[in-house]
Amino acid sequence: MAAEEAAPELVTMEQIQTAYEVVQSSPFCVRTPLLKQVEGRFYEHPKLSLYLKLENHQITGSFKVKGIANQLKHLPADVRDGKRDLVTMSAGNYGKAFAYTSRELGYKAHVMAPKAAPSDRITIMEGYGATVETYPTADLVAAVDDHVREHGMYYLHSFDDLNIIAGHASIGLEILEDLPDPDVIAVCCGGGGLVSGIAAAVKLSGRKETRIYCVEPETANSMDLSFKAGKAVKEGNFHSIATGLSPPCAGEHTYNHCKHFTEGILLVLTIHRVQNWA
Question: Which residues of 231-240 are buried (b: 16+ CB within 10 A; e: fewer)?
């Protein structure tokens, strides 16, 4: 008889609440506003009330810093003592927050970035003091592994990590503080750390009726493919004009959280995004 498959490791409400306290007290994080009834900015729909959570108000421009704040609370002693450097892979948003917080805390930071990463993000990361190396997207994981193995660096994953998921879950709790009973929450999904955290926070807070969806570009749909395969996919040709939504693979932890806490995937056509931005 085959052995039973182990239950996936998911963040708990206790971990989320602890991370929420870390984020709220962090000098690197901002408690962002929830804009109310903004549907008129997009289209008229008399039966719809639309809200936007403005995580772009963070110091480094994205939600990533909230996950990092919680990751930093769990660093091993030899990293905190400066005996090991930090390394990550990022197209820019995580890398910017990673480089900024590392500089502020006196850690040496190394970022493995895809060659397709916008040059301005590379400049910002380097401006914060990080060492940035670029590789084809398919080679990023191997580059990180090499730095860990050959140089003893400590790897902070940019999305597939329980501490970062718990940190992002603080955003879900903030949403519920401002809007206690949302009907639907749509969250962008690259690697899936943000939607994993928000979904876990909302569902574990008892909002079982709230429907939560992962929103992906049609050409960078690693989570969609993972749902169809029944496991986190590790290979694919993921690319998008939204470079931050093009991870090299799907994460095990994020796949498990999305599968457990969300209602599914919404794919967005690239042409629609370009037309809306024009």
Answer: ebbeebebbb
pLDDT in tens, 72-109: 999 999 999 999 999 999 988 999 999 999 999 999 99
In whole angstroms, give the CA distance from residue 187 to residue 194: 7
pLDDT of 205 > 70? The answer is yes
Reported pTM: 0.90
- Tokens 């450097």 identify what position? 85
Pairing of strands 86-89, 109-114: parallel
The CA distance from 246 to 91, in Å, is 8
- Output the CA torsion sign for 205, 210, 214, 217: negative
Residue 131: in which H helix or E strand, if any? strand 131-135
Phi, psi at 195, each rounded to 5°: -65, -35
